[in-house]
Design goal:
By secondary structure, the protein is mostly helical.
Amino acid sequence: MNEIELVRRCKQKEPSAQAELYRQYAGELFALCIRYSGNRETARDLLHDGFLKAFTSIDRFDYRGEGSLKAWLNRIMVNTALEEARKQTRHIELGIDEAPDLPDPDSQDDNLVREISPDVLLRFIAELPDGYRTVFNLYTFENKSHKEIAALLHINEKSSSSQLHRARVLLMSRIKTYLSRHEDE
């Protein structure tokens, strides 16, 4: 079934179409939820909540060509993950005094990312502290500016920039450690 037909049938609340929509997109959207949540259990909850939102708001979706359904679902999942991040008891913004001093990464470090598998990199991203991970995902995968991130997370732009920098430094440190331990493989 093509996207247009799938959307049409989902708008008619057909359970088989909703199941097909879930089947087609759940895997990729689950990976997105893991990127934001950092763990599988929370990601499952986010995926479930996101699909409920999608099914209840599909009437407002306007099909704009191939890929528009996927983009719409991605946006719902990201927004669901951000809502959850804001609800958490830990505040997403780390104060400067609370954050450890981290050295600047070398300019050559970006090349190291190509030396590890995407699965390992995604695991390292998932292990970042919540605030760092959220800012890193929004900036890197969603192409949001620091101004947009600040508005989404209710933090200031400097905090967004600082958290992105610290996320990158921590990732580079993890990558270097991983590569030094797996040199012989």
